[in-house]
Design brief:
Blueprint (H helix, E strand, L loop, with lengths): L3 E2 L7 H4 L2 E5 L3 H12 L3 E5 L7 H6 L4 E2 L1 H6 L3 E4 L3 H12 L8 E4 L3 H4 L11 E6 L3 H9 L6 E7 L5 H11 L2 H4 L1 E3 L2 H16 L1 H16 L4 H10 L1 H19 L2 H14 L2 H15 L2 H11 L3 H11 L2 H10 L14
This protein binds NADPH dihydro-nicotinamide-adenine-dinucleotide phosphate (NDP) and magnesium ion (2 copies).
Length: about 325
């Protein structure tokens, strides 16, 4: 069973006594910074010169410095910028300006686990990763609650890395919900596998395959959209709140019988083998290498795939059907 820590296990003084540089003021950055400040921690925001987030952080009352200046003044440096810029920022803006004994902190393990950021051996390196988006991390904290966090220690130079990390997790509200111990390897590999096999990759392909099958057989795309995409939310909400058994308790007996007969024919041995293959590529670093190379050459394959996905008929049908749903604030992704 996982080791879980709570506020009672944390010593807040360990983080109150340190100045934290929050690098990035996006989804996670604004939430960490505001929760830390409300917990009595001294916080400075580090942003690049052209950052659009500067004005927002200033309007929220924070001292905003360049990344170098923020790093030079901090005892804990938390990386809350996009993962694919962290290696460059670390090399050019962080490493040369780190105070003696300053700790490095992350909310995701990718850069450390795959050697993109090589921290000096004499530093504490830990992770505090909330298991929810930043706005929830902030809202729960303001409500006196919290979002569960993961904690991991990669380097424990001071002998206190876990305790400092726990204090940080507690100061952003994680200790109210529970802080689960993991490792950089486990967090990174399970995160990548989950988004590829199930959450993003698996789900979108499953939806498309169901939609295409119905449309190719001559059914109307609008009806196929409702059956294969729109209703997914209702099912997922039930699974989220009460597991498979709550969902099966709530749907009709016909749906339940169909589920049990058919599901394993769609996600069969072949799919499970494909998942094992994905997991191997995550574990041996081939996926990370592929993603880093894709970034280095300007994301050509990713751009082409994104264009093709955008042109799939399900997107146009969805856009038009969502105008019929007044309860929903329909969203549209910006062009890129
Ligand atoms: P966002 O994309 O929301 O925020 C990025 C922030 O970093 C923005 O303020 C951006 O500024 C700033 N930024 C961009 N480039 C630089 C730079 N060179 N130097 C300094 N700041 C820069 O990121 P997230 O909050 O989503 O992710 C941050 C970290 O948290 C990642 O490691 C991610 O994996 C992890 N994480 C994210 C979760 C989530 O729910 N989003 C959940 C758990 C972990 P601007 O855009 O104004 O230029
Ligand atoms: Mg994830
Ligand atoms: Mg991820």
């Amino acid at each position: 069973m996982a080791q879980v820590y709570y506020d009672k296990d944390a010593n807040l003084e360990l983080i109150k006594g340190r100045r934290v540089a929050v690098l990035g003021y996006g989804s996670q950055g604004h939430a960490h910074a505001q929760n830390l400040r409300d917990s009595g921690v001294s916080v400075v925001i580090g942003l690049h010169e052209t950052s659009r987030s500067r004005a927002k952080a200033q309007a929220d009352g924070f001292e905003v410095l360049s990344v170098r200046e923020a790093v030079a003044s901090a005892d804990v440096v938390m990386f809350l910028m996009p993962d694919h810029v962290q290696a460059d920022v670390f090399r050019n803006e962080v490493a040369p300006f780190l105070k003696k004994d300053a700790a490095l902190a992350f909310a995701h393990g990718f850069c450390i686990h795959y050697g993109q950021v090589l921290p000096p051996a004499d530093r504490d390196v830990f992770m505090v990763a909330p298991k929810g988006p930043g706005h929830l991390v902030r809202r729960m904290f303001a409500d006196g609650k919290g979002v569960p966090c993961l904690i991991a220690v990669y380097q424990n130079a001071s002998g206190q890395a876990r305790e400092i990390g726990l204090a940080y997790a507690s100061a952003i509200g994680g200790g109210r919900a529970g802080v689960i111990e993991t490792t950089f390897a486990e967090e990174t590999e399970t995160d990548l596998f989950g988004e590829q096999a199930v959450l993003c990759g698996g789900v979108t392909e499953l939806i498309k395959a169901g939609f295409d099958t119905l449309v190719d057989a001559g059914y109307q795309p609008e009806i196929a959209y409702f059956e294969c995409l729109n209703e997914l939310k209702l099912i997922v909400d039930m699974i989220y709140e009460g597991g498979f058994s709550w969902m099966r308790y709530s749907v009709s007996d016909t749906a339940k019988y169909g589920d049990l007969v058919a599901g394993r024919k769609v996600v069969d041995e072949y799919t499970r083998e494909a998942m094992e293959e994905l997991l191997k590529r995550v574990q041996d670093g081939s996926f990370a290498q592929d993603w880093i190379a894709e970034n280095l050459c300007g994301r050509p394959r990713m751009r082409a795939w994104m264009r093709a996905e955008k042109n799939h008929p399900i997107e146009a049908v969805g856009k038009s059907l969502r105008t019929m749903m007044p309860w929903m604030e329909a969203k549209e992704a910006p062009e890129n």
